[in-house]
């Protein structure tokens, strides 16, 4: 698979995952990256997360606010908007359908090998 296709697919998946993470917790960019690593997204460059956050905020999926940090300068924390929660639910529905279809395809292909 070409690197560009892989990157585009990952961005869509990351956006959905970030919506899920932010539905339960108010988080700042670095903490989102750390949470993604916890779930196996080890290869996601930190430079991918911040542009996605800005895009999601522009789309009205997120709100942000600056909060003091005990470790230095203020941090920008993100939370979901009502539209963000709707987008999160849509992502989950689409993900389940896509995952089921891909799993079926893989199983049937493995059986033919």
Could you explain the architecture of this structure?
The model has no long low-confidence stretch (mean pLDDT 89). This protein has 113 residues and is of the alpha+beta class. The protein is elongated and about 60 Å long. 12% of the residues are buried. The protein has helices spanning 3-24, 29-38, 46-58, 82-112; strands at 27-28, 62-69, 72-80. The chain has a 3-stranded antiparallel sheet. Strand 2 (62-69) and strand 3 form a beta hairpin. The protein starts with a helix and ends with a helix. Helix 1 packs across helix 4. It has 4 helices and 3 strands, in the order H-E-H-H-E-E-H.
Distance between the termini: 21 Å
Q: Name the structural class.
A: alpha+beta
SSE sequence, one letter per element? HEHHEEH
Which whole number gives the mean pLDDT? 89
Which secondary structure elements does this structure contain, and how are they paired or packed?
Elements (H helix, E strand, L loop, with lengths): L2 H22 L2 E2 H10 L7 H13 L3 E8 L2 E9 L1 H31 L1
Antiparallel strand pairs: 1-3, 2-3
Question: What are the main properties of this structure?
Answer:
113 residues, alpha+beta, 3-stranded antiparallel beta sheet, 4 helices, 3 strands
Provide a quick synopsis of the model.
The chain is an alpha+beta fold and about 110 residues long. The protein has four helices and three strands.
